[in-house]
Amino acid sequence: MNVVDMHCDTIMKIYQSPINEPGHLKKNNFQLDIPKMQQGDYLLQNFAIFLDKEAVDSPYEEAKAMIDCFYNEMNENTEEIRPVTRYEQILDNGLNERMSALLTMEEGAPIEGSVEKLEEFYNLGVRMMTLTWNYPNEIGYPNAVFADGNEQLTEKTQRGLTHKGIEIVQRMNELGMIIDVSHGSDALVNDVLQYTDRPFVASHSNARKVQSHYRNLSDDLIKKIAERGGVIGINFSDRFLQDAKEKGSLIHAICRHARHLYNVGGIEAVALGSDFDGITVHQDLPDGTILPTIYDALRKSDFSSEQVDQIFNKNILRLYQDFLI
What we know:
The protein is an alpha/beta fold. The protein contains twelve helices and eleven strands. Helix content is 40%, strand content 14%. Strands 1, 2, 3, 4, 5 and 8 form a six-stranded parallel sheet that branches. Strands 9-10-11 form a three-stranded parallel sheet.
């Protein structure tokens, strides 16, 4: 299968684990570790540096500390997995039966609206950045705003990129850092379409038509992202897959979202973005070992083996081949 997953928060879980019970990528009780990834037949995992900018003193310093954590874990597991910044490294690791790890950032706040800090994180190996999380930042506005401990839709969510944000996304295109619009407002996605010219991703977003949640993408945006050559990673969170009143299997819901993304945007736009270790654990999708079951379910739902291979790796690898040079 050679799974390529565009998003997980495992580094955050490891970084935040208590000193007396530390978590490590080698083996842990989270949704992803080396044995689970091996059992799930992973080729590449995107590891996001994620932080709640309202809960830390300096998002910039916190992100750098988490990047140190990422590289410490890579150094501890070099026989099984290695960090990559170039497409050829992914191929080389696969040929040598090693997995690859792509460093990404979820929440653009650590760059503090600075092109220089953006370039600093690029030089540290970050090759994809989710522009916003659940707060407005110097780059733009999300599709929901945290307030009083809850996600709320506000008038701010109708705003898109800031003036500085336009400069940031254009510099990302120049650098070869992939723009990720998951969590972004609809207006932000449209602004990215207006002010950039390269493909981009929604690394962990689903179809709003299948599950009416603001975190999911409208058909209009799915079509526009696909027309740009972008890729959308299906999120495994139960609340983004189906309504709480629905009792069906979440694996079946993944198949429904995949089918809808395919019908609207074409097969080339569909990929995986599990959000493991950033979502509530559900018995249907407990951890990375479930990927072979998802593969089989997609085949049984009338996707061809070639189409499922596109969803599992080929579509996003096509984009990586263009960016990771």
